[in-house]
Amino acid sequence: MQETTKAAGALGRAAGLERAARLRSGWYARYLWAFAAGQLALVPMAVLWHGPVSAVVFSVANGLLVAGLSVYAARQRVMRRGAGKKHVLLVASWATLFALTVTLGTAVFGHGVPFAAVAAVVCALPLVIGAWTEMRSTV
After folding, report:
1. DSSP readout, 42-92?
2. What's the pTM value of the predicted model, to 2 decimals?
3. Whose CA, among 62, 77, 119, 121, lies 20 to 30 Å from 10?
């Protein structure tokens, strides 16, 4: 009987910790929203700009975005269960779309503004979906 009480108490504490982690992991949605917003500027920059100066500006802007997001993520204390797998899936989806965007934008669409606008939204889409689902799962 006493073993059952101890086990129930341990399970209750574990459930409480998981609930607290879920409630405090809303930061990841904000991270994804910022990453998605960055795509609205970085993708057109990658598709439309030409030359070495644009490459440097793009690299610095992208580096600042990644560094800022990395510092923000490193300062967070809580990560929801399964968030690592979700993050890998989201970043892989974004990277695939970004690579296709740059390839198609330079080889097929000739640096067109309409293509760059649509591509920016398409590259941000997996991040927006991830942020939206993360917001729903932290409630």
Report:
1. HHHHHHH--HHHHHHHHHHHHHHHHHHHHHHHHT-----TTHHHHHHHHHH
2. 0.78
3. 77
